[in-house]
Write the structure tokens for this entry.
Amino acid sequence: MATQPPSFDEQLERLEGLVQKLEGGQLGLEEALQQYEEGVKLSQVLQDQLVQAQRRVEVLKQGLGGETRAEPLEGDPA
């Protein structure tokens, strides 16, 4: 049986945990580098997911005449 990949929220929670560990200053250099590398990868995955979600919102806001109206999401610094 195939397992589902972690959800956006689960990945974000993991990233927040990594940041807390790094900010705690209790990790050795090698472990800190590994945690940092994982955090960078997670950040990139999450950013890609956000871009995909924004594109989906733009498609859903397509006008009846077929034109695309790209409207900024709430809280999006336009």
In short: The chain has two helices and no strands. The CA atoms of residues 10 and 16 lie 10 Å apart. The chain has a mean pLDDT of 84.
